[in-house]
Design brief:
With 454 residues, the protein is α+β, with helices and mostly antiparallel strands. Helix content is 26%, strand content 25%. Bound molecules: FE2/S2 (inorganic) cluster (FES) and fe (ii) ion.
Length: 454
Amino acid sequence: MLTAEANERLTRVGPGTPMGELMRRYWIPIRPFSQLLEEEVMPVRVLGEDLVLYKTPDGELGLIGDRCPHRMALLALGIPGEGGLRCSYHGWKFSPTGQCVDMPLEGPESTFAERVKITGYPVQELGGLVWAYMGPAPAPLLPPWDLLVMPNAIRQIGITELDCNWLQCQENTGDPLHNVYVHGYWFKYVLEKKGRLEETPQETSGGQPERTFYGRTRMADGIESVYANKTRYGLEKGVKYSKALGAEKDTVSRHSTVIFPFYTQTGGPSRVRQELQMRVPIDDTHTYHISYGCFLSPKEIEVTPQPVVPWYEIPLYDEKGKPILDFILAQDYHMWLSQGEIYDRTQEHLGRTDVPIILMRQQFEEQLRIVEDGGEPMNVFRNKEALPDVLHGGEWDETQELHSGPGGRAHISFRFAYHKGYNRDDADRYGPAMPQIIELMQNIEDLAGAPSAD
Ligand code: FES
Ligand SMILES: [Fe+2]
């Protein structure tokens, strides 16, 4: 439970708020670059600020205030051209810094343009995303988090705008055992109600039905405790299982890795399917959710490089306006939405499954104070040597396993992911790169000389 003040402090992101100031220390992913190729000018709201993103014909990117300061027309209706974006009303032109560089109707002698400047934030492209920096100068380096830059991979970017505060999305990653119900029993119930429980084949693995929800319900067996630890880049956490309490064996099951401030990385050592979920605050009550899917190929198979990382929208509702609930990410989305616009943490009752959420809130508070004291928070990088270069927030050194090839764990995990049904049971199914991803999966199976299903 939090006080109302603490809840405000953690959730509000507008200019001048404590969390808003912390967020403005980071490069923020704002749009897929491939979307900008389809639509070269678009409105963007981020951290409560209304902006316009544009690409000039010579490829320059700009992110500037959304209103023309002449007579306040919307620059999202503007015309991109060499060196900037021109307002469609009377032609004032704004460079990526927000500087007015032309006022064609003011006459050639006029120096008025030099004295007019609007907001302009630095932007750059990495990993198929456009990133913006909205904080104090100088901008830090944009960290090349592993999935953004790993070679020999197929990527796709799933986008959803959610009418709820970003923190309830991020706190979901501090909650490993929501899997049991949301993605286990609820998923099963949803399919049962639709009469679809038997519709899809249930592959077996060691005699056990292997559909997503079965595995998730089994995550309730033999829980000893939920653990969480701070790491250099965020948090690691998971569940300890005990044979004495009903688990198959004594084991530790690591859940997704948190990268501060709003990322979670799913997948695991040697898994081919990896995902970065990014919970970007549009404002206090809306979140731009990015599901950045990355499928890593073993080194024996060279994937055809993608000319651009494609993007797609992940739907929340069906054509009748009913919630779509038959895939994993949508189940999470609808839980977060159900908590309310900004969930009232003064009314909550946390239990043992919430241990990582408590640590996550402490980490936010610690970093908020660092910024308030004039310091630089974690994951702000200013020299190249300090940039993260290993998987999973730097705490899992398993790059060799990841590419261990057809005889190794990468292969086994790849088969597991395929039969587990991400192309059916998760948002991946809507992704434009799915044909290449399935082809890659099949190539891996062929490489191993194994039958396509067992
Ligand atoms: S309102 Fe933009 S140039 Fe006049
Ligand atoms: Fe989930």
